[in-house]
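Example record

Each entry pairs one chain with its bound ligand, zinc ion.
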Amino acid sequence: MITSTVENYVKQIYLQQQENPADLLPMGKLATAMNVVPGTATAMVKALADSGLVDYEPRGGIRLTHGGEQLALHVLRRHRILESFLVEILGLDWSEVHEEAETLEHAVSDKVLERMDHLMNRPQYDPHGDPIPTAKGQISHIRLMPLSDMAPGTSAQVARVADQDAAFLRFAEKNGLLPGVKFSLISSDSQADAVTIRLRNKQTITLGGKAAEKILVRKKTG
Ligand SMILES: [Zn+2]
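Structure tokens for the complex follow.
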């Protein structure tokens, strides 16, 4: 049976795998991400392997099977449509919708989800800029770069804010660093670990290195 625990594991394995797609996911890393002790994660992964959702090599690590990946993409689809719905239709703040979606993603029916998706004209990205998988389990893989890797004098567009932490999201919103916003990098000071950017409205913002790593951008191509 697919419980919410199974869905959460499969989703987390998928997200962790995206960071190093070529490698098996180490059990320790999964346990940390799930906030459980390694023994708990191992027992769960064995059950997932028995259900055909993951391949598990005791010394190497974990990888989702095709079936596991499809399940993960369905959970992500529910999560990201719910986040979009909560922000766009219900008017919740984007810093608070992740937690709500974590609960609702296990409860929403396909029928309700389909109506939400339809009502919003089938958005491709959620409010944080993450791509929404299609109902057929397809997802766009656009290579993004962290703002911290940009060279001074170059321009880009905010594509994703890669942190679901409410305080960080409020910081990003307060400074206008929302997906779609265009800016130029004015200076990058490695000694001070800070970058300064200028938005289109001429406002300048200085970000610390940590914050700049969490803002993912798409390079401007004209
Ligand atoms: Zn979320």
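The CA atoms of residues 115 and 122 lie 10 Å apart.
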